[in-house]
Amino acid sequence: MKRKYFSTIALAFATSVIAFAAHAADVKNIVIVHGALADGSGWRQATEILERRGFNVTIVQEPITSLADDVAATNRVLDLQDGPTLLVGHSYGGMVITEAGNSPNVAGLVYVAAFQPDKGESLISLASSKPAGGMNIRETKDGKYLYLDPAAFANDFAADLPKNEAAFLAKSQVFASKEAFSAKVGDPAWKAKKSWAIVATEDRSINPDLERDMAKRAGSTVTEIKASHAVFASQPEKVADVIAKAAEAAGK
């Protein structure tokens, strides 16, 4: 009888140890969700830095046709990851990771000059609460999509990048549907998981004070970097540092 009792205790202990080990596993997978009016190519330098540090990095090229479509695109990439994953979002990508971050294999969230919504909030409602500098946003002829005037792109989005790099970002920008910008977020993952936020102090696309307020509300660990909205491209080393430290902390 005693032997059976101790065997049961031993089994329960072993199970709890395995569960704890799984929870505290090293986070080596990083999935990045780019923002609107950009694509994933601008993350190349940060990606290469993280890969040299031993991380497996994947970038979601979401269509920005609707928030639901973009969450689904992110979930498809998350499903391919082997083990716990750190989910990173820039700008509009913060809206996406706030919902996609509820996936069970997501260990933490990093918001990079990003929107960090609460339940029921949309990108438009947040952006209008604390307007940034006037962005020269235009509509496509069908009235369904938005884009940033290429002539104004460098000033509004990437003022601290070399002209040729800013010009390439302007040419490769992904148009955003109005539906994506007006969609309201469901239950935010940051309420249940650790989060980090980078505030771009020279941001002209999202008011830096709005970035600070959203991060404070979420209880995120905040790092401020003197950079434009394109901080991921202009300061890739500093952004990679924050992501790497977040991955380490998320695994504890």
Attribute tags:
globular, Sec-Metab_Biosynth_Hydrolase, Rossmann fold, 11 helices, 252 residues, 9 strands, six-stranded parallel sheet
Structure description:
This is Alpha/beta hydrolase. The chain has 252 residues and is of the alpha/beta class. It contains 11 helices and 9 strands. The strands form 2 sheets. Strands 2-1-3-4-8-9 form a 6-stranded parallel sheet, with helices on both faces. Strands 5-6-7 form a 3-stranded antiparallel sheet. A hairpin with a 5-residue loop joins β5 and β6. α6 crosses α7. About 8% of the residues have low confidence.
Topology record:
Blueprint: H1 2-23, E1 29-33, H2 44-52, E2 56-60, H3 67-78, E3 85-90, H4 93-100, E4 106-112, H5 123-129, E5 137-139, E6 145-148, H6 150-157, H7 163-171, E7 176-177, H8 178-182, E8 194-200, H9 208-218, E9 221-225, H10 231-234, H11 236-250
Parallel strand pairs: 1-2, 1-3, 3-4, 4-8, 8-9
Antiparallel strand pairs: 5-6, 6-7
Signal peptide: 1-24
Keywords: Hydrolase, Signal
Organism: Rhizobium mesosinicum
